[in-house]
Protein: Transporter substrate-binding domain-containing protein
Organism: Anoxybacterium hadale
Amino acid sequence: MKKAISIILLIFLTAAVCFGLIACGTSGSGSGGEQEDVDVQKVLRVGMECNYAPFDWTQSDDSNGAVPIFGASGQYANGYDVIVAKKLAEELGYELQIHKTEWDGLIPALQTDKIDAIVAGMCMTDERKLSIDFSDVYYSADIVAITMKGNPYENAHSLADLAGAKVTTQMSTNWYDMLPQIAGAEITPALADVTAVVLSVTSGKSDAVVVDMPTAVSAQLSNPDLVILDLSEGDFAVEPGDVDMGIGIKKGNTALLDEVNSFVSKITPEDREAMMAQAAAVQPLSN
């Protein structure tokens, strides 16, 4: 009888140990602080707005290589950032999860381990570098102003020519930090996202808005009357951090940062433009 009880106890303890090992396996990724089960594929949780074409947008199907948005049934993400994130996950051997996150929530989500990386066309400003680490440059984009055909400012060739114009852009961006360079302009409150920014100028609420060049070109696809201003006689003064974009990584996660930098180092300027052209070619006109 005692022997039978001992055998049953041994079986129970073995099952409990196995269950404990399984429970310790992780489907999470590069935060580096969790034990990983070799039989469970690591997950790279990437945050982006999914509302910033051509870098990232939301669509209703998986056409053209779109990726399901985690926790959002029937929603898929695509764009330059998605192409990059897919290649990054493949290179590192991770399963990719796209987490749709509002712009202001991206850095907090990274700091609190809700995501592992930000791939969202985020410029590497000095202020942001105080909060998170960045990879090497994965894209660079000039800052431009756009208006509509027929607007009194459509022939502006310098920032000085925009004096008196109503101008705005997206909140919490380096674009908004550029607006005071337009002397004499009426700077109106910042807007939530790129969609609202473009609508502001197409509806006439703003005379001009400030975005980056890929965003301006993307907006023209669905709004042919948009004009990208040639400010060659007096353009924005920018620092590298205003135009160079990096992949955001939580401070201290050097292992993931090193892996990401190894990946980024293999992306040539020609690769960047090819991926951007690929994104622009499949961008829905509604984005």
